[in-house]
Automatic annotation (TrEMBL):
Lineage: Bacteria, Pseudomonadati, Pseudomonadota, Alphaproteobacteria, Rhodobacterales
Domain Sulfotransferase span(s) in chain numbering: 31-281
Stated family: Belongs to the sulfotransferase 1 family.
Organism name: Albidovulum marisflavi
Keyword Transferase among record annotations: yes
Descriptive protein name: Sulfotransferase domain-containing protein
């Protein structure tokens, strides 16, 4: 009996996403698809992957020139498709779409990256304030607790990450978790990447099937630390004519810190968050989504000291 494989069974279209472009896009052997909820380490992972492919550390802007967000509704997805179709190098494709909305090919590698959902929420709050489009600002009113209630209670766009509510993050995770038995579905956690970036870089090289020398892995690790990415972005900003775009500018790399909710949410708020995430995911999965490899069976026990 043939092994069951994922199929593209759903369409996720919203203010940020137009997943229907996947109907027209043809994958190639060796393609790397980086699919994450927004603000979960997408750009960081893309830079590591494209640097490994290039054989040298790339700047954020160099990465942006070769690894577009294919199913982004904020610009014409046909342009991203054309850019990727024209490439004769190994391709790295960005998406925020659940696995059921993107093409699957066993010859490709799928990297799904996750981050504590409250860190995602507060990071996106900063990001939304600087986006050229105001499509996300309605999700982040000045009242932090009102924004939290929207984050916890809403289930918008049928699982698409376009509203970046907690449901959409759990939904994205579950769509990939269902297929973790497949050898080309790989999970990373932002907290683990922060704690041990060299291991994350080495693992991504193995996923790409690369026998890279230790010197190159060390060079890419150093080049992709948060501090160095911010420096490279700042240097690009200085060379740019006019006001640099927020995406991939130094301001984009606002803060790689975790526990962004500290001092902003009460113990009652946190209890409501834990109650909601337990409704959305089994406890073991919820704990991993919060803390990565540091998670223990209970949610609270996984909290870093």
């Amino acid at each position: 009996m043939a092994t069951e494989l994922p199929i593209r069974s759903d369409v996720y279209d919203g203010p940020l996403t137009t997943s229907s472009i996947w109907e027209k896009f043809s994958l190639r052997a060796g393609d790397v698809i980086v699919s994450t909820p927004p603000k979960s380490g997408t750009t960081w992972t893309q830079i590591i992957v494209t640097s490994l492919i290039a054989g040298r550390p790339l700047s954020p802007r160099e990465m942006g020139e070769v690894s577009p967000w294919l199913d982004c509704a904020l610009h014409d997805p046909e342009e991203s498709k054309a850019l990727l179709d024209a490439q004769d190098i190994r391709r790295c494709i960005k998406s925020h779409t659940p696995l059921s909305g993107i093409a699957y090919d066993p010859r490709c590698a799928y990297i799904a990256v996750y981050r504590h959902p409250l860190d995602v929420h507060f990071s996106m709050r900063h990001h939304a304030a600087h986006m050229e489009s105001d499509v996300m600002r309605v999700r982040y009113p000045g009242d932090v607790r009102l924004a939290l209630r929207m984050f916890l209670d809403d289930e918008l766009y049928g699982g698409s990450c376009d509203a970046l509510d907690l449901h959409s993050i759990a939904y994205h995770y579950a769509s990939f978790k269902k297929w973790e038995r497949l050898g080309n579905i790989h999970f990373f956690h932002y907290a683990d990447m922060v704690a041990d970036l060299p291991s994350a870089v080495r693992r991504m090289a193995r996923i790409l099937g690369m026998d890279a020398p230790a010197s190159l892995l060390d060079e890419i690790t150093q080049g992709t630390t948060f501090a160095n990415l911010k420096k490279m972005a700042a240097a690009s900003d200085q060379r740019a004519t006019g006001e640099p775009d927020f995406y991939l500018s130094a301001n984009f790399f606002n803060s790689g810190a975790s526990n962004k909710w500290e001092g902003q949410l009460s113990s009652t708020d946190l209890a409501e968050f834990e109650k909601r995430i337990r409704q959305l995911l089994p406890e073991k999965d919820a704990a991993w989504l919060l803390w990565g490899s540091r998670a223990t069976p209970g949610l609270a026990e996984g909290t870093p000291s």
